[in-house]
Amino acid sequence: MKEKFLKILPYSGYVLFVSLGLLVFFVAAFLVVVVRTKEEQKVMMPYVIGKNYIEVHNELQRLQLKVRLESERIPEKTDGIILSQSIDAGKEVEAGSKLYLTVNIGFDRVTIPDVKGQDLKRAKAILEKVLSGEVYVPLQIGGITYVPAVGDEPADTILDQIPAPGKETHSGEKIYLLVTETNPEKKTSQNAKDGSDESKLVGIPVPFAVDYLQRKKIPYRIKEATKPEFREGHGLVSSFELKPTGAEIGAFYLKPSTSLVQDYEFLEYEIDDDDVYSAKVSYTKPGEDIEIEKEILTSQSLKEDEKVRFVIHRFANTKVTLLGKETGVAKVWKLKGTY
Question: Does the N-terminal or the C-terminal CB of the chain have fewer CB atoms within 10 Å?
Fold first, then answer.
């Protein structure tokens, strides 16, 4: 009997080992199922029809919904509003679910043309006839800023434009032009209704006002940035005053909820040391390897704890560098649009 028991024992150990292995496997599988089930997050679908997609983008991202956009053009409805949603409002769905939204493109869609280097007459002709799909539409000029020519720059020539070339937008967006003066008596802006210093630069893009002052070798400071009443005021000069010490600029600025690929940036820095400071903007044009630099502040004396402010228009990965004559690099901003 004892010998028979000893013969069976190895087999019993093997069966026990296999049984324990299976038990561990099934317990582990059960725990995985339980944990995964527990981790499945449910979210409540909000009602977004009639809202502008930009306004709800962040909320939908927070709910971890995978948004897919489709478009439809209804000119009578506001550009950018949501016309329909694939998941009914109030429905509970899993995080990560796909959500299809139909967004209205009320305006004709256009790509901003490149008019830099063109004479003003030719540029106006180009902007009057911009291709949108299979038809041509006009782009409205928001303002023309005249600046003194430097070096061999030809008169009446486009030096810069906002928005920058290549921007995908709608035909309702205004375009601003920076143009060399035809003669020294030319007004700073076509929008100016009188010759007073306080009104010359109001209503034009802040970077263009800075360019004008730089060319005139007039010191300046941006004293404040306030929220505009209307979105189209974003990035424009709200006030301008010329004092014996230099120009004071007020700017309209609307902080975006999302960093757009092309937009205005408001920068502020509190000076650490008394010094003479300069600042430059540098960027590389998309598809090119050449870095372009432009000075936006030249040899201005700034005191410790004084705040220096800049409003720039970013259309590529951009770097802004603030330098002290004696103290070296004070601040570097690296700016990039993501949406």
Answer: N
Give the span between the Cα atoms of 37 and 27, in whole angstroms.
15
Q: Rounded to the nearest 10 degrees, how much is the dihedral formed by the CA atoms of 220, 221, 223, 228?
A: 70
Enumerate the H helices of the chain as residue ranges.
Answer: 2-39, 53-62, 120-127, 197-200, 206-215
Q: What is the pLDDT, as a whole number, of residue 54?
A: 86
CA distance 180 to 203: 18
Instruction: Tell me the range of 9-13, 111-115, 257-261, 314-318 where mean pLDDT is highest.
Output: 111-115
Closest among 195, 190, 112 to 144, alpha carbons compared: 190
Tell me the pLDDT band of 304, cut-offs 50, 70 and 90: very high
Residues listed for the chain: 339
Q: How far is CA 273 from the centre of its chain?
A: 32
What is the distance between the alpha carbons of residues 209 and 235, in angstroms, rounded to a whole number?
11
Report d(CA 283, CA 292) in Å as an integer: 5
Cβ–Cβ < 8 Å for 258, 272: no
Counting other chains too, the contacts that 191-197 makes at CB distance below 8 Å and 24 or more residues apart are: 191/143, 191/144, 197/240, 197/241, 197/242
Q: Could you read off the pLDDT of 231-273 as tens digits, one per residue?
A: 899 999 999 999 999 999 999 999 887 788 899 999 999 999 9
Task: Specify the DSSP class assigned to residue 167.
Answer: -
pLDDT band at 166 (very low <50, low <70, confident <90, very high): very high
Place of tokens 């920058």: 164
**What's the whole-model pTM score?**
0.73
Q: Output the six-digit token pair for 18.
A: 């296999």
d(CA 96, CA 113): 38
Which one-letter DSSP state was computed for residue 1?
Answer: -
Domains detected in the chain: 42-104 (3.30.10.20), 107-186 (3.30.10.20)
Looking at the DSSP assignment, which residues form a beta bridge with residue 303? none
3-state helix, strand, coil in the chain (%, to 5): 20, 40, 40
